[in-house]
Each structure stands twice: as structure tokens, then as C-alpha cells.
Amino acid sequence: MDMNEIKEIFFQECEEQLAELESGLLKMNDGDRDPETVNAVFRAVHSIKGGAGAFGLDDLVAFAHVFETTLDCVRSNKLEPNQDVLKVMLKSADVLADLTNVARDGGAVDEGRSRGLVKELEALANGELPSPSAAHEAPAAAPVAAAAKPTDDSGFEPIPFSFDGFGGDETFEISFKPRFELYSKGNDATLLLRDLSRLGEMSIYCNMDALPGLDEIDPEAAYFFWNVTLKTDKGEDAIRTVFEFAEWDCELTVTAAAEETAAVASEELPMIPVPFDLSALDDASEVSASEKSAAAVAEPVSNVTPIASAAARVEKKESAAAANAAAAAAAAAQNNAANNSAGQTIRVDLDRVDRLINLVGELVINQAMLSQSVIENDATGTSAVNMGLEELQQLTREIQDSVMAIRAQPVKPVFQRMSRIVREIADMTGKSIRLITEGENTEVDKTVIDKIAEPLTHMIRNAVDHGVESPEKRTALGKNPEGTVRLTAKHRSGRILIELADDGAGINREKVKQKAIANELIPADSNLSDEEIDNLIFLPGFSTADTISDISGRGVGMDVVKRSIQALGGRISITSRPGQGSVFTMSLPLTLAVLDGMVVTVAGQTLVVPLTAIVETLQPEAAAIHSFGASHRLISIRNSFCPLVDVGRILNFRSTQANPVEGVALLVESEGGGQRALMVDAIQGQRQVVIKSLEANYTHVPGIAAATILGDGRVALILDVDAVVGASRGQALRQEVSLAAAG
Q: Would you tell me which of 49, 225, 371, 717 could form a disulfide with 177, CB atoms 3.0–4.6 Å apart?
């Protein structure tokens, strides 16, 4: 692998670490004080810093270092992670993500915001807590210190961490015991000890009591550990910084001790002195691993001074070996448990998965064509070929389900992205907003995830800007000053439902209606229901904003959201209660590749009705059909009446209504609520079809969601059930495109 490939892997891992960071901070913001949550947050920043250092990304390293230092104060219980502290940390996580994106894609970050947050983080690390009022404000740009480093090409000024202020020389006792993982990851104990020696005056002793006989040595094991006495004016943080890239792969303890105590302790330790010069290892590349191992073992042996009786040494060696064996067994058990609990993953280029999806789709089509040919030539359906085709159909379905599962991903990354948007818009509007997410692990096809981010972002901005009131107004209304926005995802009937709810003022229907009349979107004498008024916000160019701002009010509103969701084969609906809030519901397909459908015939045309929309099928009887008004009909189903919709008439396949008794009724349930009985001429059968975009290959056709290829090679149109149901309610379809030409 070349360096660019390695760097790309690093940035992919950064995305995972940033998601882990934000997830952990949000848990802490909700009151989670589990040490493991705090450690996970710290490790995320620590890992980003370590990888960035390897690639020389100084800006990212500088900010991550200050952030990490503050998190370490939380981890060591020196800093209480209250709401105001976590507001600063969540903003810092946003800046860390910005710096990562700049390092990968180029560009620049907001220097004022970065410097301001650096100062806030340093203040928190020094015990200076932010005031509640300041925590809600955007950080102001901090003045550049005269001694600061000059800015580099990215425009961000690295902020060096200073170890000043720790007083005079202190003596520390350091125990450093590597695990085998330290060496397998390319670290070197000798080089770590060399860097440690540069901090001050150091005495070092190597403990080799756990070293077995030559015939029992495991070349991948770690047998030595070191006790170090260090006198330095740099402080404990400087010592731990030396081991920061190896901290998780060794047992490290650092304790402060008086010089006299340290001297006495060093005399009593049954250790072997290591006299070779660590400072001579400045060029690590000149010393091979075998040479360093030989230096660590062979050279000290010639300088051993008897310091304990042979019996005592044997006893200590046996106890040390037993302790090491127990520790190794515990570590092995822990590693095995971890390996068993966490599944292995592999990174695959998405283009390869897309190609596999397309090939499986073609396999499904060809399998359907082959089955159709055999059925036409085998009337009995009992031949060995026919039976083999049934097995092939089952295997094809299993392959398709497995491949689709590869593309399925949780909506968690998109939901986490919304947390940042809520924070930013809340700061801009001076509001206090709490985002609650549910169903983050709900899985959906990656193509759907990629395309819902933009409409969801606009809906979030709209909810915070228009929906939730200011803290002062909420207090006056007897509400909690902190508004709530709830984002949920769940599966229902083969689709995914995403709901965005707020506890704000709800839709001001009178204002919406008057705005629509003023913009000549509806006649002044329109008599609209509450539902119809609510849906006016989806009209192109509609906005209730009184002033144009960076948040909303530019004439690009909810109509864009609606079109984006419809392009995915989805629907959006709204319910609102004045004074209590609004709920936007998006219904989307789980995948944009395949669906299970019912193949039907309407006026000589072949259509596919998505199976997830069908409740049941029935053969209408003359006694169950009732006329309603001049042109409407109802069908009686189990002592209830349901509107009967002639699909051929709605789609303009025919000019007159067909006789219901001569056809078949499909009882469907639309996303907008309510049931309708769709009347078709005949049912050909149920099958899985591969979705082909009609817009990409032809143009948009009203009432049609997509197209597919049947087993006999013909193109069939996939019915847009919600559009047909909407048309039956009086929402006329656009007729500028001839469906006959499209079919």
C-alpha cells in the first residue's frame, strides 16, 4: 500500500472515532457518568491525535492535544462534566471534525472559533468553569499571542501545549511493563525509555525475573519491565505524554516521591542495572531489533552486582513468573472474549458492492425469464427442469437478500450529524434545544441513507428556527425553557419511518393561509381543512419567515424536502397541534434496488403494485358496490365502506369507469392514512422485481414510481399507490405525459 492508501484508511477510521466521540459526549450530556463512556471519549480523541501525528497533520494534533488534556481532567475526576462543560466539548468535537475534513479535503476552518475553543478548553483544564450564560454563546475569537507559532498553509495556528507552571524539580517513580501488543504495533520500549531520559535525571532498572529458559522463550512475548526513578521539572503530564501512543499496550504507573524515599527504594529493589547509553539511540533506524534485544539482555549481565541471596532471588523469580503467568492467562481470556463478542469486519469499496448489486439484479431478471420460458413449455409443471428452477429461484432470493444486507447500514451516522446542526442553529437563534434520538440502529440501504441527509437537515433547521419558541416565550407559556426535538426511526411494513417531532408552537394555520393567499398560491376564498392548510408549507417558494436570514426564508423550503423524498419513492406527511408542536413523518423504502410486488393488468397495461401496500385482495360482488355522488363508488367490506378507485381511469388508460364486478379489488393502505380499494382487471401473480429508475431512463410519469423488467422481457410500470390514492381524493395528477407512450 502506498502512503495515500494508508492515509485514506486513517481518515475512514477518523470518521468512526468522531462518531464514537460525539456519541459518548451526548451520553455524558444525558447524565451518563460511566467511566467506560468517559474512557471511550478520551480514546477517540487520543487515537485521532496519534494518527494525525504520524502523518504530520500539526493543526489537528495541536487541537486534539488540548482537547485530550481537558478530557483527561474529566477522566481523573479533576473536572466535573456538567452541562456547561459538555457544551464546550461538543463544540470542540465539531471543530475536531472540521479540522479532520480540512486535512483530508483541503480548505480552512474558522480560526476565531478554533482559537476561542482552545482557550476555553485550557481554562477548563486549569479549573476555570464557564459561566452558564457564556456557554450558550458562540466562542469569540481570541487574540493571537505574540509568542505564538506562525500560521501554516492551512491557515490554522497550532497551539503548543505548555508544561510550565508545575514548579521545580520533582522525583517520580515509574513502572513500565510492556505487553506483547506494544511490540506487534511497531513500538519500541528502548526508544520510549530514551525519550523519557530527555526529561531529566534518570535511573533505570530492568527486571528480568520473568525471563524463562532459552528453550521456553516465546519470541512474541514481553518478559522485561522497567522501574525508573526520574527527577524532572516537567511534571507528570510530560511523562505520560512520552507513553501516549503506547498507553493502551503496557502497564504504566507514575507516582510522585520524595528524593530520599526514591533513593532508599532504589537500593532495596532486586533489579539489574542497565548501564548502556539511551541517548545514543537518536537514530532508531541504525539499531536493529535483535541488536537492541541483545543490548538489553547481554550487556547488563556482565555488570551484575550480587544484591540478594540465591534463595531469595529464586523465590522472587518463581513468584514473579506465577504472577506473569496469571496475568497472561487473564489477558488471553480477555482477548478471546473480545474476539468472540465482536465480529470481524472488512472494508470494501462501495463501487464493488454496487456492481455486485447490479449483477444480482440481472441474475433475478434472467432467472425470471428462464422460469417464464419453462412455464410456457411445461403445462404440468412437474418436470425436473421446473423443480430445479424452483430451487434456483430460492437460491437467487437468498443471494439477493444477503447482498442487500451488505448494503444495509444503521441510520446512526445521519442522526449524529443532526446533533451538530441542532447545536449550531440553537446558538445562532439564542435558543436552548435538546435533541433526542431513538432507533439509531435501524438499518436501511446505504443509498437511502446518503440521500436523506439533505432533506432531514432542512427539516431540523426548520424545526429549530420556526418550530421551537425562544426560552423567554416558552417560560411565559409555562413550558420548559429548553425545547425538545425528537428524531426517531423504525421499520414498518417493509419500509422505514423517520419522524421528526418538536414541542414548539405548532403551525400557525391562519398565518400559513394568509401567506399562501398573499403569494397567490391559493384563491382568497379557499375553504381548506386543517390538514390541507398544513400541507401548504410544501408548496414551492412558500415561507412564513418575516426576514431573510442564513437559516431560512430564501424561498427554498419544504417543497425541496418533499421532492427529495418523493425522488426516493417515499412520502412525507405532517400533523400539528397548535401550542404543542408538530410531527413530520417520512416513509421511505428500505432499498432502492428490489421490491416484492403484485403483477396486475389494467386496460391492457401491465403494472406492479408494491406488496407492502396491499392489505388483501378480493373479488367484488354486485351487492357490495354502492354509488356515492355522481362519479364515486364504495365497496362494502366487513360492515364498513371503502372508496373504490378505478386505477385505469385515474391513470387515464381509459375514458370510462370499468365494471367492478368484472375485475379484482386490491385493498391498500396509503402512507397518508386510510384505506382504498384499487380496482384492476386481473392479477397475474406475485414476484420480486428489480427497480429501474423511470426518470433516469425516460422522464417522470405521474402516478408511476419506477419501472421493472418482467420475465418475458416486457417493461412493467410500478404503481405509485400514494399518488393514485391522493388523486382519488381530488388531487389531480399532472397529465402532460402520456402513460401510453411511457408504457
A: 225
